[in-house]
Amino acid sequence: MTVGFAGEDVGAWPRPRLFPRPEALQRSVETLPGVGPAVKKKLERLGLATVGELLLHSPFRYEQPVEELRIAELGGDDEVAIRGEVLSVSKRRRGRLQMLTARVSDGSATISATWFNQPWLERQLQPGTAVRLRGRQGRYGFDVRSFDIGNGQATADFAPVYPASEEITAKKLRELVGAALPLSLADPLPAALKQSEALPPRVDALWAMHRPRSLEEAETGRRRLAFDELLLLQVGLALQRREREQEVAPELAPPGELGARYRDVLPFELTEHQERAIAEIDADLERTMPMQRLLQGDVGSGKTVVALYALLRAVESGKQGALMAPTETLAEQHFLTLDEPCRALGVTCALLTGSVKHDVNSDIVVGTHALIQKGVDLPNLGVAVVDEQHRFGVEQRKALTERRSPHVLHMTATPIPRTLALTVYGNLAVSEIAKPPANRKPIITAWVTEEKSADAYSRLRRHLDDGRQAYVVCPLIEESETSQARAAEAEAERLRRGELRGYRVGLLHGRLRPAERRELMARFKAQELDVLVATTVIEVGVDVPNATIMIIQEADRFGLAQLHQLRGRVGRGAEQSYCLLISRAREELTDTAVARLEALVRTTDGFELAEVDLDLRGGGQLLGTRQSGLTDLKFAHLRRDRPLLERARALADELVDLDGPLRDEVERVFDGADLSAG
Ligand code: ADP
Ligand code: MG
C-alpha cells in the first residue's frame, strides 16, 4: 500500500479501526453505576445503548464563563450566576408557554426565577432548596438557562449541555459520561497520522469534548472526532467509486441528428447552464462506465428539458430511456411535458404507473418506481433518469441498478451545496443549473404574522378576482398522513366558510386516491377551481402557471428546503407571483425558525438557501442525506470543517486499498447503505 506517513513502518501498518469496538465501548450502558433497566430504556430512546454511544453523544453547547453576582447586584443584560434558597414555587400558563416560577432569595434580595415548558421541575424546587442558577434578566424575571441543586456541575463554566429528553436530564447524562470517561480506550489512528494532521489522541479528544477547561480545548476534541467520522465516510465512498468502475454501461452511439432536431423542436433556446449540463452528460455517455450524475437546479430551472436530451441519446442508439418519479402525480406531470416534444420527433413515449400499465416497449417510458418493481422489465434500458432521487428508498434504487447498469441521471430540485454533494454523494458527478431561463420574475416573498393574516387573505382574494389562482398550504401535522388529511379537511372547510367564501376551493392531500387526485389537478389546471388548499403533497410536480399566489400557514414549522419547494409551485408563468409566509409572532419563534423565514424572504436562489440550511443545521439530516443510509454526521460541521473534509477525502483514496480492520469497519458502518444513490 502507498500510505507513507512519516516515520511509520508501512509494512507494519497498525490496522487502524476508525470506530473501534473494544469490549469497553461495546458494553451495555447498564454496566455503568446508576443505570438500571429503567434508565437503560430511556437512554436507548436517545440512541444510547452502549458505553461507546454514550461517549460519542456530544454536547450541543457549553456554558460560557460567567460572573457570580448577589441578587441585589443584578441589573445588566449579561448572563450571570446567582445562588440562593427557594422560598416558594408556582406554575402557570401564558399562551403556549408553561411557566414555572420560583421565588429565590440570597439575603441581599429576592427574585422570581422562571423556567419555560419544564413543569416537571417543580418537585425538585421545593421551598428550602439551595440552588445555583445561571441565566439573565428577562421579561418574566430571572430567565434560567441552567441550574444546580446545591453545588453541581450544570452551572459550572464550560459545563457541557447535552441533548436530553424529558425522561433523562442533561444532569444525569453528565454523570453517566463522567463514569464512562475513565474507561481505557484504544486509539485507532497511527501516531504519525495524528501528528501530521495535528490531531490529539482519541481519549484526549473525548475528555476534551466532555470536560473542557476552555472552548478551544473542546474544539480540539471535536475536530479529532469529526476527522474520524469524515475519514470513515470518505473511505466508504472511495470504495464504492472503485466498485462502480468495474460496471459496464450500455454502449451508445455518439450524439447525432436526433439531438439537433430536439433543439429545433424546442420553442426556446437552451440556456448556457443547460448547454453545459448537456455537454457534461455527453462526456459521461462516451465512457464504458455507467454515468452516475446528479443534475441539480431549482424547480422550473429547466432540468426536465435536459433530462429528455439524455433519454433521446439512448433512443438514438436504439435503446430505451426511462424516467422515474417518486409519485404518480409527478410521473404524469413529466409524461405531459415529454409527450409533446417526443411526438414532434417521432419518438414513442408511454406512461407506466401502478394504475396505468401499457407499452413497456416504447422508446421512452415514464413512471413511478412501479416501473422497476417485479414483473416490469426493460431489457433494453440505456439511460435512466431518476427524479427527486432523495425520495426513493434505498431498496428501490438498488432494484434499479442491480439488474443492469444503465447510465443514470439523478435530478433534484432540492439543491445540495457543493460541499455536501462532495461528502454525501462523493461518488456522483454533479451538474448544476444555477440560473433559470431569463423569462422568469423572481417570486416576491413576505413574512406575515398571524394577527395580520387577514391582510394576506385579502391580497390572495385580489389575485382570484383578477382571474388568477392560488394555493393555501395547511399547517404541518407530523403524526400521520391520516391526521394530516383530517386537519386539512377541517381547514378547507373553515376557509370555505371564512376567508375563501364564494370561491371554488379544492382540497389536495395524501389520502386521496390517485384517480381523485388526478381529477382534482385537472380541474385546477382547467381553472374550474380558484384555490387549492393542500398539504405538502403539492411540494413537487404541480405545474399551473396561472397560480400566482401562495399562503403557507404556520410556515415556521416547515423546513427550509420544504418551504423553498412549496414556494416553487408559484412563479411558473410570466406573471409576478407572491408567497406569503404566515407564522406566530417573531418573539415566539426559535432563532433558527426566524433565520429560515428571513432567508426565504431575502432570496429565491435554491443554492443560497441550501447553504443557509447547511449553516443552520451543520450537516445532520440535511435534505436527502437521511436516506443515504448513514447516520447523521455527529461531529463534523460541513462548512466549518471543509479543510478537514478535503484532507479526509485525499487520504481516503490512498486508504481505500487497505484490507483488514479498516475495510471491515467501513463495510460494517456502510452496511448495505446505498451511497451511490443509484
Ligand atoms: P424543471 O424540470 O427544472 O422544473 P423544466 O425543464 O420542467 O424545469 O422547465 C420549466 C419550464 O421552463 C417549462 O415550461 C420549460 O418548457 C421552460 N423552459 C425550460 N428551459 C427553457 C429555456 N431555456 N428557455 C425558456 N423556457 C424554458
Ligand atoms: Mg420539471
Give a brief outline of the structure.
This protein is an alpha/beta fold and 678 residues long. Helices cover 36% and strands 18% of the residues.
CATH architecture of the domain at 257-433: 3-Layer(aba) Sandwich
Bound molecules: adenosine-5'-diphosphate, magnesium ion
Assembly of the depicted chains: single chain
- Give the full name of the CATH homologous superfamily of the domain at 257-433: P-loop containing nucleotide triphosphate hydrolases
Task: Report the portion of residues in β strands.
Answer: 15-25%
Task: Output the strand order for the largest sheet.
Answer: 11-12-10-13-14-9-15
Query: What distance separates the N and C termini?
Result: 30 Å
Radius of gyration: 29 Å
Please give the CATH class of the domain at 257-433.
Alpha Beta
Low-confidence stretches: 1-22, 390-400, 620-631, 672-678
Task: Give the % helix.
Answer: 25-40%
Mean pLDDT: 82
Strand element count: 21
Largest sheet: 7 strands, parallel
Structure annotation, total helices: 21
